[in-house]
Amino acid sequence: MSDVPLPGGSSPPAGTATIAKILAVPFGAAARLRHARAVHPRGRTYAATLRVTDTGLADLLGEERHVVVRLSKATATPGGFPDVLGVAFRVPADAGPVDLLLATTGSRPGLRHLLQVRRSFGDAVHTTLLPYSVHGRIRMLALLPATTRRISCDMATLDAAIATGPLPFTLATASLTGPWEPCGTLEIHTPLPDGSPDTDAFDPEINNLPALHPAGPLRRWRLLAYAASRHGRGQPFAVPRPAPRVRPINHRRPYAWK
């Protein structure tokens, strides 16, 4: 694997680069064995409506978009057995596509970075797990449950459950230690046939914007993990160059990661 600069243009310490490459190996191996994604290999797709109420985020994503959403289980456990659940969607923003991938975690600071197994999509918190740079500021992104309705993670019954009534979420952002701040909604409403080209290869390391992209000290590992997973599915091994740094829109609060 060729060396890749970290966000901001600096090169990582040799030890960090080696560890990141080692940690990425299982993703390539899993993808080769499954002939599919290393994690979340099976899922269902749905039409959804994304509405963004935060002005800064709406400048990047648009105020309202029709999006295709993929709901999945990380390890494809059978039936309604619990698993780490995932919600992925691609936003057709004016400046280019933006892929957002979220998984079930805790809600409080610290717990937002820890995966949790769940049985229901409807009442689960989903976060980006690792932080994003949003207009130059480090933020976590989340889909918070907007219903108390339980929607089983059984892929065989998911279509019928969503056809009965939409699956709503509140889109929210937060600093690493702050409270969640609502900034929009995502309503998942219509089952779609499998094999949509919009859901074949979600990749937040390729599909992002200079003012909205993954960030933080673990980003190098994530870059290599996604590249290894793509390579395991028969695609060329390529590590995208991180987006250029964007200065914060204001300087009210400093952040350690940019």
Automatic annotation (TrEMBL):
Q: Which domain of life does the UniProt lineage start with?
A: Bacteria
Q: Which GO terms describe its molecular function?
A: heme binding
InterPro entries, alphabetized = Catalase_sf
Name this protein carries in UniProt: Phosphodiesterase
Q: Which organism is it from?
A: Thermomonospora curvata (strain ATCC 19995 / DSM 43183 / JCM 3096 / KCTC 9072 / NBRC 15933 / NCIMB 10081 / Henssen B9)
